[in-house]
Structures are given as structure tokens and as C-alpha cells.
Amino acid sequence: MLPRKSIIPEEFAFSPALVSPIPRKPVFRDRVNKARFIAKSGACNLSHKNIREQGRFLQDVVTTLVDLKWRFTLVIFSMTFLCSWLLFAMFWWLVAFAHGDLDTNRKPGAEQCFTNVNSFTSAFLFSIEVQVTIGFGGRMITEQCPTAITVLILQNIIGLIINAIMLGCIFMKTAQSHRRAETLIFSRHAVIAVRNNRLCFMIRVGDLRKSMIINAVVRLQVVRKTTTPEGEVIPIHQIDVQTESAVAGNSIFLLAPLIICHVIDKDSPLYDLSAMELQCSDLEVIVILEGVVETTGISTQARTSYVTEEIQWGHRFVPIVTEEEGVYSVDYSKFGNTVKVATPRCSARELDEKPSILIQTLQKSELSHQNSLRKRNSMRRNNSMRKNNSMRRNNSALAVPKVQFLTPEGGPNLAVT
Q1: H or E segment and range at residue 412
Q2: Which residues belong to any copy of the Inward rectifier potassium channel C-terminal domain (predicted)?
Q3: Which end of the chain is more exposed for a tag (fewer CB within 10 A), N or C?
Q4: Is the pLDDT of residue 189 over 90?
């Protein structure tokens, strides 16, 4: 195929109609409607249906409240306090009614459980004052009613429990780990190129904050639909993919943006895929970045995924870290920029079986690079020659003309004026 590549254009030499018997249009039409497992923002695109044991969520009330949306959490927060105030207002009103404090015909100077509690409205205000410890001083309990003292102790205990649970849930919602993950970014596209004479799958990760992620670990997974030899269909088959950082030390030092590299070897699920087969395949590469937030000590996790349309074959990330006046500078405007590089279009298996393919590809790239340099040099020479010719013409046009004079003898006499 290499001699033909120089004659036939690349987009026709690797046409799917010639390489694979599978038609190209139906493949891409099916994949457009397919939902991805992990969204680019990191959200799991999964819907739970027909859950019969709904009561399990009430067994862990705190986690359920934290997982709820903010509008539901605020409604539950407000309704919990309001219901507790109303409940104990009813208790205070019953105690006052049983003791006779609400009787308008009671004798002056008779013993009372409360002062200035004459209706349910005043009992409700007294309940609020007791639970939130406002204490305006207009209403209070006397020592003549042990029942009222018991209700007072009970309301204080229940109020402290409600405050601890609800405030704890709100604090946990505001300090959730995925909030820190908003400043962990991934490149928009993944690339496949040759690095150290091996075909590699690469992505770029970075952290926008100066506070670091401690013990950061990056994991890759390939998710695709597979069928076992027994005929079992696995719709979401997760295959772990090894990275260079995991092999070296199982963690990365995420001080500046890093390129995470996966060498496509015989243990890789991408080992048998060529450039055209990758575009026609139905797989998704999931990237998971985990670590501990330095400032809070809370574990965080950032996720993203790459489908086949977002994997660029034959590209490489441009450098974005430079040294300026003794300080390393990171240009995040070029975070996802890539450039084309010489990369064989065949699979990693074919490269291992025929190493000459890589050599020939690099040689062709070097020849094309030299030809481009020659063309640039020739164009520069032509432009310089044109400029010199134009300058000569302008100088000749500005030269002083010669005038011919005739002598009396009739012979010409040339003079310059």
C-alpha cells in the first residue's frame, strides 16, 4: 500500500469500501444516536428505573439529603423547622389549656405555667423563642409546672438535633468534592501518535488552581459492547487501560499540565485497531482523575470521556510550558491545540509485525519536510530576485537621460545634462 499512497490520494487509498466490507454510512448513522456513558463534564449518563425498594434511601437520610438538589434541600430545611415549631406550639398550648392558663374566668393571682401565653399564636411564638433561644423576655415558664419543664428540655434536645443534621447537610453540600473538580480540566480531544517508536494514546490534564491535588492518580478505561464466545452480550464492558504514570509510581505530580500516555501494546484493547477501524468502531475511553485536595483533605474525582470522533489519529499536543524570566509560564489558550505529525495509519499489531512501516513513514515525512523547505527557500529566492529586479527598474527609470548635440561639422557630440 505504500507505493500506491504516493499516487492515490490518502482519502481514497484508505476508503472503507476498499478496506472493510462494512458500509461506512450505516456505521456512523448508528453511532450518532448512541448515548455516551460519561459526558464531557464528567456526569454519568445513566438512568435508574423500576427501583422497587425505595425505602432503602430513607435508611441513610444524611446521604439522601446531600444528594438532593438545592431547591429540595432548602424546602426540607425550612419545613423541618416550621413543623417542629408548630408541633411544640401545640404541646405548649395543651399544657397551658390543661393547667387552666387559657381560662378567662380564672382568679387573679392564681398559679400559672406560663406568662403571657393566652392563645395558640402566643404559644407558637413561645415555641420559636425556646427552640432558637431568642428570648424576648415577655413569655417564660414558671416553676409551678413540672410538665412544662419536661417539654422545654425535650424541645431543646430535638432542636439541637435538627440544627446539627440540617446544618451538617448544607455544609457537606457546599464542600462536596466535585466542586474542586470544576478546576481540573482535560483536553477536548485525545490523540494517537508515535512516541519512543511506539504507537501511543495520549490526553492532556491540568489544574487551574495553585493548591495542588495530592496523590493524584489517572485511570483509563475502555467501554464498549462485547459478546462472549458463549453468546452473552455485555452492553457495558469496562476494560482497564494501563498508563505510563501508573507503571512508574501509581501517582502523578500535577503541578503543571501533563500529557498522560498509554502505550498501545499487545495488552491494550486498541492493539488491533487501525485509523479507519477506530473511526468505524463503537468504543469510549473514560478518564478518571482522583486525588486529595490539599487545602481541605477531601478526596475528589474528575471524569471525562472520549468517543472515536474525539480521537485524532496522527496528532500531537503543542508545548504550552515556557520559561520566562526565571519563571515557568503555562499558556492555557493552547491547552487543547494539536499539530499533525507523521504517524502510520495501520494498527499497532501491524507495526510490531512490520517495523519497516514506521521507518518508511518517517522517511517519507522527512522527505516531504525537506521538499517543503526547498520550496520555501526557492520561493524566498524568487521573491528576492523579483524585488531586486523591481528595484533595478525603478533605479533605471530615475537615471539622468542622455542628450545628443550636433557640432557645426555635423558630427554627433554626446553630453550628459
Answers
A1: strand 412-416
A2: 184-354
A3: C
A4: yes
Cross-strand pairs, 238:
223
The whole-angstrom separation of Cα 164 and Cα 171 is 10
CA–CA gap between residue 112 and residue 298 (Å, rounded)? 54
> Contact at 8 Å (CB) between 60 and 67?
no
> Of 221, 300, 305, nearest to 254 (Cα)?
300
| Beta strands per DSSP E along 294-411 | 299-307, 311-313, 315-317, 321-324, 327-330, 338-340, 402-406
Work out the number of other CB atoms within 10 angstroms of the CB of residue 3.
7
**More reliable by pLDDT, 207 or 368:** 207
Domains in the chain, ordered, with CATH?
Answer: 19-47+180-339 (2.60.40.1400), 57-174 (1.10.287.70), 355-417 (no CATH)
Amino acid type, 410: G
Q: How far apart are CA 381 and CA 175, in angstroms?
A: 64
**Strand residue runs (E) in 196-257:** 198-207, 213-227, 233-241
Q: Are 72 and 169 in contact (CB under 8 A)?
A: no
Q: How far from chain centre, in Å, is Cα 220?
A: 14
Least confident range from 80-89, 178-187, 301-310, 394-403: namely 394-403
